[in-house]
Design goal:
The relative contact order is 0.22. The protein has helices at about 1-5, 15-20, 25-35. The chain has about 60 residues and is mainly α. It starts with a helix and ends in a 24-residue tail after the last helix. Helices cover about 40% and strands about 0% of the residues. It contains three helices and no strands.
Amino acid sequence: MLRILNKRGIPMDQAFRNKVMGTTDLALLEDWIDRAFDVTTAEKIFEGAPDDAPSPKVRS
């Protein structure tokens, strides 16, 4: 996800990078990766989902 945001030119501070790198919940990381393609700021990755908890989005 960090690489996607970097390639898109989305700035990320160290606190953001630390939060992402410290997350071990794979479902949450997948959700954040999906969001990385559409957000305009890094912080929007976390909107709509509580910290370190999977979003209620259902995958089929």
